[in-house]
Please model this.
Amino acid sequence: MTEPNDRPAAPSAEDLLRAAFKYHDALVSQAFALLQDWSLAQDAVQETFIVLQKKHAEFRSGSSVFAWARQMVRYEALNLLRARGRETCVGDEALFALVDAQFEKNLNHDALAALEQQKAALHHCLDRLEPDALDLLLGFYRDRVSCDDLASVRQRSVNAIRLTLSRLRSRLRDCVRHRLVGAEMTP
Amino acid sequence: MNRDELFENYLRGELSSSETAELKTLLERDDEAGRALVGCVNETNLLVRVAAQIERDRADRKIVPLRPPSARPVFPWRRVSLAACLVLFATFAFVLIRLRPSEMNSPQLLASDAAVQLTRRDQVRPCQETLGLKAGDVITTTGGKATIVYKGESTRVEIQPDSVVQLADAAGGKHLELRQGAITARVAPQAADQPMLITTLHAWVTVIGAEFKLRADPASTTLDVLEGKVQFTCRFDLKKVLVTTGHCSTADSCGPPPARPLP
Model:
């Protein structure tokens, strides 16, 4: 019979946080998908790390830190949505569950490794963008400024803004692809 | 609304009731769509995160210490050096344009069949003659075949019937997107830093010189290498296989299996 003091000790709060922080990008992605707001997603993940530190003693050694952190992110995201009064009908809950299930299924360790490679390639590609293009991307995707408002500020048509955003994404995808694939090709 | 637009609107919280229902149905019935959604969210998240980091770095670099005003008049070194750079650039551009072989490696479409259509900037027209191609052009073959050739080299891409191919921006080499159907390609040796790239829904095909067949449908992409070597990369997990002469490989949403001999 196993005595309680024979169980492996739970990791320290610092060790647990360090382990969880390796999955920061993946956790923000998951939160972003659930909350549809990048800034809120950052808040949810920050809150998750705080809770992880407080509850580190509850973590069972040998369990997956990523799986545990994912559950907490899901919980924090749900709390944020309820606090903002956005849970208005069964349909939203159902979509929340469907999206969460896709991340459970598809955000595996191979995908996590791919995420790191993509991030490095993307840094190279974004660093070469003009400041105006970077500003447009951040305005649309981070700050959630509408195309109408972006068009008004930049004195361009809405269609021109949409086209520019589409071309920028396409250009970045091509650049990332070349960085990831071209460098390792051997003739 | 296509799938990418649906995902983008979802991430911006701008889905209508019918679009929400459409997304739910898609995620319930199509595993591939689920993977694509995760990919889209990851891509957007990284884009915002890295762009924000670069924005902060650039802002930090703009902070420079003020220099005290000098009592002596300062020679306009900046203007002189800028003028010198412009002159050098203009000279270089002039020399390059004069020396550059005209229209080298520009793609052309050879189509001898009325069942081949070219879409350029949303305008569709049948093709029955040789036509210069531009980035963004979409070639659709219903009953007939079409061939893309590149001036100055022997590279040929034969587009099979019932196929759709788009020319992508060729900043770093030749780049085609096989949206559906099949192609048979003979690619002349390319510069190592400018391989030919063919993308499908499931894979990236990188070629420096080879002869191969590529087939893409919604479920999978299959590569048969007849001669040479081709790098076959799964778009979802970035796993690569090098497929050599007489071997084939198939990629679906779960990644490419190892190359196996052609049947």
Remarks:
- The radius of gyration of chain B is 24 Å.
